[in-house]
Write a structure and sequence with these properties.
Structural class: alpha+beta
Strand content: 25-35%
CATH architecture of the largest domain: Sandwich
Oligomer: single chain
Order of helices and strands: HEEEEEHEEEEEEEE
Number of strands: 13
Number of domains: 2
Strand order of the largest sheet: 6-7-13-8-11
């Protein structure tokens, strides 16, 4: 059993690059049953005083065990940690498209020689336009008559209007009214010192989308 333990110890020492030295001298005061360790070139490492061996098998085992731990700790400490991969940059959000906003009251035409008509939207059965007036009026002997219904809103300025046999009505910003198809109507006057802006919605109930 002692020989098997010695061989195991010898193999452990060899694995650490050392040689196990054992003694078989049984002389009184000798080193029988003791061990030592030395390098392959003969340099004493542990358990040797000159040619005399001084370490027990347990002491040699403990020395080799501590040597293994020290070597493992050094190896573990020298191992460089793998750098963590940098996270991929988050995709940049696509810029949202800007809305195209127009203003009915900006860059108004002068409309001094005649009313200015601008179509804003045209779809089957409906047409929306802006009308800019400045001092214009409908001749008494030439009333306006349309083949479609119309909803009209006064946005800016001032005007007078008469529909059929009604009295003249003065319109200001925000006022709106309905003009049925076939109804005679007159714009009796519009402000001459500033633009009068109308929003007119023409509806054709007979049209199919």
């Amino acid at each position: 059993m002692a020989d098997e333990r010695t061989e195991t110890l010898r193999a452990t020492a060899a694995h650490r690059g050392l040689r196990l030295v054992s003694s078989r001298r049984r002389k009184p005061g000798g080193d029988f049953g003791l061990y030592g360790l030395r390098k392959p070139d003969g340099t004493p490492v542990f358990g040797m005083e000159g040619k005399t061996l001084t370490a027990s098998v347990e002491e040699v085992e403990a020395y080799l065990r501590d040597l293994t731990r020290a070597t493992w700790s050094k190896s573990a400490g020298s191992a460089k940690a793998r750098p963590r991969p940098k996270p991929a940059p988050a995709p940049r959000p696509r810029p949202r498209p800007k809305l195209r906003v127009a203003n009915l009251l900006e860059r108004l035409p002068a409309a001094k020689r005649g009313e200015a008509f601008t179509d804003l939207l045209a779809r089957p059965g409906v047409r929306i336009e802006r009308i800019v007036s400045r001092g214009q009026a409908t001749p008494e002997d030439a009333p306006m008559v349309q083949e479609h219904d119309e909803w009209v809103l006064l946005l800016q300025g001032a005007a007078g209007i008469r529909i059929g046999n009604s009295e003249e009505t003065v319109l200001g910003p925000g006022d709106h009214l309905w003009i049925g198809r076939g109804e005679r109507h007159w714009v009796t006057w519009t402000a001459s010192d500033r633009p009068t802006v109308w929003l007119a919605v023409h509806l054709d109930p007979g049209a199919r989308p």
